[in-house]
Amino acid sequence: QVQLVQSGGGLVQAGGSLRLSCVVSRSIFSFNAMHWYRQAPGKQRELVATITSGGSTNYAVSVKGRFTISRDNAKNTVYLQMNSLKPEDTAVYYCRVTSAVHEDWGQGTQVTVSS
User: Fold this and answer.
1) pLDDT at res. 58
2) Burial, 86: exposed, middle or buried (Cβ in 10 Å; 0-12, 13-18, 19+)?
3) Any residues with CB less than 8 A from the CB of 59 and at least 6 apart, and which?
4) In angstroms, rounded to a whole number, what is the distance separating the alpha carbons of residues 11 and 7?
5) I want to staple 85 with a disulfide (CB 3.0 to 4.6 A). Which of 54, 102, 106, 113 is the partner?
6) CA distances (Å), 37 to each of 4, 19, 115, in order?
7) How confident is residue 100, by pLDDT bands cut at 50, 70 and 90?
8) Using CA atoms, how far apart are residues 82 and 30, in angstroms rounded to an integer?
9) Are strands 46-52 and 33-39 parallel, antiparallel or unpaired?
């Protein structure tokens, strides 16, 4: 069983920044991609950002240019740097790792952006 431990959420004013971290309990080289999702109250969970094992990244249109996903292979950690935050970014954020035969999710962390 792979464990993903998230940290870094909290309350921030609009225009502010937060960095989320997701520490994986084994080498992230074993996964072909790592992702951040979010789920706002009353809404479906949506994909925010993806980084592949090769380092390619992809972002939802709503966060492109404001959020940056990155990975530290030595620390088995994936990050989500969130800048210029907006109230509509308020949600529970989840990390997820995927391989050809496996997936795991983090426990979720609340991000609240006040106007």
Assistant:
1) 98
2) middle
3) 48, 49, 50, 67, 69
4) 13
5) 113
6) 14, 14, 22
7) confident
8) 26
9) antiparallel
- Please report the pLDDT score of residue 102 as a whole number: 85
Terminal-residue alpha carbon distance, the chain: 40
Q: Which residues of 20-53 are buried (b: 16+ CB within 10 A; e: fewer)?
A: bbbbbeeebeebebbbbbbeeeeeeeeebbbbee
Specify the DSSP class assigned to residue 69. E
CB contact at 8 A, 81 and 68:
yes
Contact partners, residue 35, CB within 8 Å, separation at least 6? 47, 48, 49, 50, 51, 95, 96, 97, 98
Question: Is the model's pLDDT at 30 over the cut of 90?
Answer: no
- Provide the b/e sequence for 65-79 (b: ≥16 CB within 10 Å): eebbbebeeeebbbb
Q: Strands 77-82 and 67-72, how do they pair? A: antiparallel
> What is the chain's mean pLDDT, rounded?
96
